[in-house]
Design brief:
Layout (H helix, E strand, L loop, with lengths): L1 E4 L2 H6 L3 E3 L7 H8 L5 H7 L3 E5 L2 E2 L12 E6 L5
Parallel strand pairs: 1-5
Antiparallel strand pairs: 1-2, 3-4, 3-5
Length: 81
């Protein structure tokens, strides 16, 4: 699965994209993996400051199951996607 990051996420994560094995993972699992232990990413989702798209469709359900063929993009509100 390819993950793309926008806005402050690039600085927070130190990269613009990453490829990971998404077998049996949900969107919530991915967000937890990316979080550096400070809760910033999940807090941004909870506060509606972070959009998540899977294959170019915005998702709100963090229980969405992912596959290795998915493109997941994380972008803060106001970045224009």
């Amino acid at each position: 699965m390819l993950l793309r990051f926008r806005g402050w996420l690039i600085e927070y994560l130190g990269r613009g994209e990453s490829t990971i094995d998404a077998s049996n993972l949900t969107v919530r699992d991915i967000l937890a993996m990316l979080d550096k232990g400070d809760g910033e990413i999940l807090r941004a989702v909870d506060e509606k400051g972070l959009f998540i798209s899977v294959n170019s469709k915005i998702v709100h359900d963090l229980a969405v199951q992912l596959s290795n063929n998915d493109l997941v993009t994380l972008f803060p509100v106001g970045t224009g996607g």
